[in-house]
Amino acid sequence: xxxxxxxxxxxxxxxxxxxxxxxxxxxxxxxxxxxxxxxxxxxxxxxxxxxxxxxxxxxxxxxxxxxxxxxxxxxxxxxxxxxxxxxxxxxxxxxxxxxxxxxxxxxxxxxxxxxxxxxxxxxxxxxxxxxxxxxxxxxxxxxxxxxxxxxxxxxxxxxxxxxxxxxxxxxxxxxxxxxxxxxxxxxxxxxxxxxxxxxxxxxxxxxxxxxxxxxxxxxxxxxxxxxxxxxxxxxxxxxxxxxxxxxxxxxxxxxxxxx
Amino acid sequence: xxxxxxxxxxxxxxxxxxxxxxxxxxxxxxxxxxxxxxxxxxxxxxxxxxxxxxxxxxxxxxxxxxxxxxxxxxxxxxxxxxxxxxxxxxxxxxxxxxxxxxxxxxxxxxxxxxxxxxxxxxxxxxxxxxxxxxxxxxxxxxxxxxxxxxxxxxxxxxxxxxxxxxxxxxxxxxxxxxxxxxxxxxxxxxxxxxxxxxxxxxxxxxxxxxxxxxxxxxxxxxx
Lengths: 259, 223
Known about the structure:
The complex is a heterodimer. By secondary structure, chain A is of the alpha/beta class. Chain A is about 40% helix and about 15% strand. Chain A contains eleven helices and ten strands. Chain B is built from nine helices and seven strands; from the N terminus they run E-H-E-H-E-H-H-E-H-E-H-E-H-E-H-H. In chain B, helix 6 (about 135-150) runs parallel beside helix 7 (about 165-175). Chain B starts with 8 loop residues before the first strand and ends with a helix. The interface of A and B includes residues 31, 202, 203, 228 and 233 of A.
């Protein structure tokens, strides 16, 4: 057998940038408890995870964010990420909740919540994110009711290229997105990318070459996907130890302003 | 392949309307690295006479190891009568037939794994290898059921879905002897697809079987 490591463990500290915690209303998920998530993290060698509520993304942002905090219950290895719906949520109330819970990252899901990611909808929210230096996660696609809906890359480009101080992360880039993802990332220097669905051949080294290791983050899409395979792939890309450490955890720590 | 630790790969080319052109490319590539590559034939019953002649050529002259089918390009289901002459030929030879298999919803039924049950029972000398093992969770459930119903059905692991627990589900459902690693190169990265098996929560001997030993046995290769 070739050089395959059947006892693989990551060589760097790992902070997962894309984890969903809790149940979905529309279908079962493979792991929907705090304990199950922590067990999976331990098995894969993931020390910390940035977690959002799928209920917040797929049904009700305010309710889901509340559920997320209940589930995390002070567990230090899970860092909460709130989901907002700029078309419906109250920004002042959301900002208060973010401050109260020390939330360090926000996720928007324009295609799920049915609004265009354009200034005339999201301007006050992006102004606030910029002012508070809270980074924004934008999923490239979501699966809902058996079909996949993709974000409009032109909207992302037009909106974020005018906001160089807003840090954002494009999440869940899929092989169908690679024809536009690299040009988008090159064109928007404030935009990073997570690796949570980047399974195409050479995808990781190509992104590192295109935008540098400093803008690439490990993420898993757990519990939709397991945590370990992307780590395995990442560790076989011939990256320097410094680049590997940055991608596995350092870049996310910096984005979130954590020690 | 080297970066992923893949020693050998079975390669095919389904991307020409003239199947012979793709098969020639495969044969040329195999000839350059016979220790690393195995040839896999492709035919389409869109051109029935050509298909049968091409089968003979691929297996008798080019030394192909098995047959790949891609019914989505034909626009007809895998159990359509158009394929019967091909299956009769394959059954007579007792070869492995790999087909794309996918069921992710009602708009995706041409190669639903449940369709292979009738074929596997009708053409019993064929070893049926279901590429992607049905793809998403609903297709995987059908694929596992097909493997349980028919001892000549095998499941291949490559998928772009990559969902949590998929490898464990296939191995527990079909048995560790009937699941084979596949990468879907060059679309998918073999490092990722190997990682799905290497880190799966199944016994080490099962991982070794899936990663290569089952393919060695199924194709009659030297270990």
